[in-house]
Write a structure and sequence with these properties.
73% of the residues lie in helices and 0% in strands. The protein is mainly α and 352 residues long. Helix 3 packs parallel to helix 11, helix 6 packs across helix 15 and helix 8 runs antiparallel to helix 9. The longest helix is centred in the C-terminal third of the chain and has 30 residues. It is globular. The protein starts with 11 loop residues before the first helix and ends in a 7-residue tail after the last helix.
Length: 352
């Protein structure tokens, strides 16, 4: 067997625990308790806090460590880092003023694009040392996109889904069994081609790229079971949030920690968050930002989890459409900025 090293991003243990296993562990959790996860009536409050506040919203703010919290990066990319949130806010206000549903719809599709591209990005990172023919790389690319796009096609053309991305009706919905039939056949064929390709490479090279294949397998499983197989909000949210949020935060931690290790930052905050016991500060700051954001959402808009966000219960609920058109795009700005910025910070020639 080939003795070449596996292309881990940080180390075998940390990659498996924080980047590759979340998709499998979240699926295992859903499979162990199918009756609870098939329930489409909602998510228990404590579980909602873990998934949404501690993981989903918190991971959005982890981008800060790679951008606004880093003085060197901010000085180099200040124009971009200032223009993006301003532009996102202006467009958000215009969309919400035009039609609230269209605001949520555009944000939902932007989020989906971000989620899909993350899986492709991880696959590229784990393929970075491979010297393979272009046809092999093309099969990998088609496979990882198929793992995410087929469930989305199924979602769009099978309207009876008991979950939404953000709000009811944010995705377009059309019932079409013909598209489902042919897309399912294509999905299965691409899986077969990918598996045959890997068998061929194992025989020819006597080596297998373990992290890349775990990433591809985890993507296929989590997206299929979260959207197609199970039809409940709790199952979808579990598989969607855990398999996306935890790996993203881990990737930020791995990359920024290496920068600090190689060259001590001039930022006291970064030295604190990536130094000894830095992971604690890193996570606490993310959770505080997430709690603040969700508290404002709950206090001003939803009024659904007042027992969790007691410091915000005194805030008045906003009903004015004119004020909502200014407020909701502002509250959603961290997410929108995160989705757009992510398209810049992981590019191969990025200065981030």
């Amino acid at each position: 067997m080939d003795n070449r090293k596996q292309p881990w991003l940080n180390s075998k243990a940390t990659d498996i625990i924080f980047i590759l296993s979340p998709a499998f562990l979240s699926l295992l959790l859903v499979l162990l308790f199918p009756s609870q996860f098939q329930n489409a009536s909602g998510i228990p409050v404590a579980y909602w806090v873990i998934l949404i506040v501690f993981i989903d919203v918190a991971h959005v703010y982890s981008t800060l460590y790679r951008t606004y919290f880093n003085p060197n990066t901010f000085n180099k990319q200040s124009s971009l880092l200032i223009i993006i949130p301003i532009t996102c806010y202006i467009i958000g206000v215009m969309l919400y003023h035009f039609d609230a549903l269209w605001f949520w719809r555009i944000l939902a599709y932007l989020a989906v694009y971000h989620f899909v591209r993350q899986q492709y990005g991880f696959m590229r990172l784990y393929s970075r040392e491979e010297k393979l023919p272009s046809v092999i790389k093309t099969i990998d690319k088609i496979a990882i996109y198929t793992a995410t796009l087929y469930p989305l096609i199924y979602w769009h053309f099978t309207p009876a889904r008991n979950f939404n991305w953000f709000v009811e009706g944010d995705f377009f919905s059309f019932e079409n069994n013909v598209i489902i039939k042919y897309s399912t056949a294509t999905y299965l064929i691409i899986i077969a081609i990918y598996c045959l390709k890997e068998i061929y490479l194992i025989i020819k090279l006597k080596w297998i790229n373990i992290p890349k294949n775990l990433l591809v397998a985890g993507t296929f499983l989590s997206w299929y079971f979260g959207i197609v197989y199970f039809n409940g909000d709790m199952a979808f949210t579990t598989l969607n949030v855990i398999s996306h949020g935890i790996p993203y935060m881990a990737l930020i931690w791995f990359f920024e920690k290496k920068k600090i290790d190689y060259n001590l930052s001039k930022s006291r905050l970064l030295n604190l968050c990536f130094g000894e016991y830095g992971i604690v500060y890193f996570l606490v700051i993310l959770i505080l930002f997430a709690y603040l954001e969700e508290g404002l959402w709950d206090g001003l808009i939803w009024k659904e989890h007042q027992s969790i966000f007691k410091p915000f219960t005194g805030l008045p609920r906003v009903y004015s459409n004119e004020f909502l058109a200014l407020l909701i795009p502002l509250l959603a700005l961290p997410q929108a900025t995160h989705y757009v910025l992510d398209g810049f910070i992981w590019k191969q020639k990025s200065k981030f």
